[in-house]
Design brief:
The protein is α/β, with parallel strands linked by helices and 272 residues long. The chain has a single domain (4-267), classed as Aminopeptidase (3-Layer(aba) Sandwich), CATH 3.40.630.40. 30% of the residues lie in helices and 14% in strands. It is built from 7 helices and 7 strands, in the order ββαααβαββαβαβα. It has helices spanning 36-39, 44-47, 56-60, 119-148, 186-198, 214-219, 249-267, and strands spanning 14-17, 23-27, 68-72, 151-159, 174-177, 204-206, 226-234. The longest helix has 30 residues, at 119-148.
Length: 272
């Protein structure tokens, strides 16, 4: 599986690999491509790209056979592929970042002159990046559903485990989000929870601070045969949580030993 963070910015703003199982992995925040006109508008904080879901493609690479993967190549500072295209907040009343973020996860400004408050600029980015990514993801979900009568969307995320601007305390290692059970059959949530709860040395929560972003909430329609679940991993489970954001072989091996069996059990579900 190709790492979106290293993928060429030329061509499509996403990469897609088709599989034959019911499982579709979405990776919206591992990309690092920023167009030149956007990069020059960022300040030094923005250019550091600190809020990347680092190494997500590598975390999930090879864990389950015959899986479909759709990854965004563009960075979330260009436009966030996991936000409502209307700009509506995912978490009203809580600190969060928007469709085009104006601050990073620590509340620090990203832009030299906040040019991205302009509605026309946001719409242009939505059309160029956000829309094609979701068109590709929707197409793959439809293809998989046609094969099996249902599709399972597993939305792959990671975040630093300590971010006071966004949440109190230290984030659990596994954060399962199903919008309080709305976006998938109970069986799917139960399988993910069973594996996370049984993982020695790891903590977990279901529908805690992160209940699923726009992707999970938008596509998760179990009555229509599409079941969606978000997994937000604490980055402490597999990497160094500060520059240079280095991969940690030992931590990652322990994490992948949990994720692999979980994904294989999810892919084997019959939710038709």
């Amino acid at each position: 599986m190709q790492d979106s963070a290293a993928a060429s910015p030329k061509g499509q703003p996403f990469s897609a690999r088709q599989g034959g199982s019911p499982l579709v992995l979405a990776i919206p925040h591992a990309g690092s491509h920023i167009p030149d006109d956007v990069r020059v508008a960022l300040n030094d904080t923005g250019r550091a790209l600190s809020d990347t879901d680092w190494h997500m493609d590598r975390v999930y690479d090879g864990l389950v056979d015959d899986v479909t993967v759709v990854s965004a190549r563009f960075h979330r500072y260009v436009i966030d592929a996991n936000r409502d295209p209307s700009g509506a907040s995912l978490y009203p009343g809580q600190n969060t970042t928007g469709l085009v973020p104006l601050t990073d996860f620590d509340g620090n400004p990203l832009w030299q002159n906040e040019p991205d408050a302009d509605a026309a600029a946001i719409e242009a980015r939505r059309a160029q990046f956000h829309a094609p990514y979701h068109a590709a993801l929707a197409a793959e979900l439809a293809r998989v559903k046609a094969l099996h009568g249902f599709a399972i969307l597993y939305d792959c995320h990671s975040i630093r485990s300590d971010i006071p601007f966004l949440f109190d305390g230290t984030l659990p290692d596994f954060n399962i989000g199903t919008n309080h059970g709305v976006t998938c059959a109970p069986t799917l949530q139960a399988v993910a929870l069973r594996h996370c709860a049984a993982a020695a040395g790891f903590s977990h929560v279901v529908n805690g601070r992160f209940v699923g972003g726009w992707t999970t909430r938008h596509y998760g329609q179990p009555d229509q045969g599409i079941h969606a679940i978000q997994m937000e991993l604490a980055q402490s489970t597999y990497m160094q949580q500060s520059p240079p954001w280095a991969w940690d072989d030992d931590r990652a091996a322990r994490l992948r030993a949990v994720l692999g069996p979980m994904l294989r059990d999810i892919a084997a579900l019959d939710l038709s």
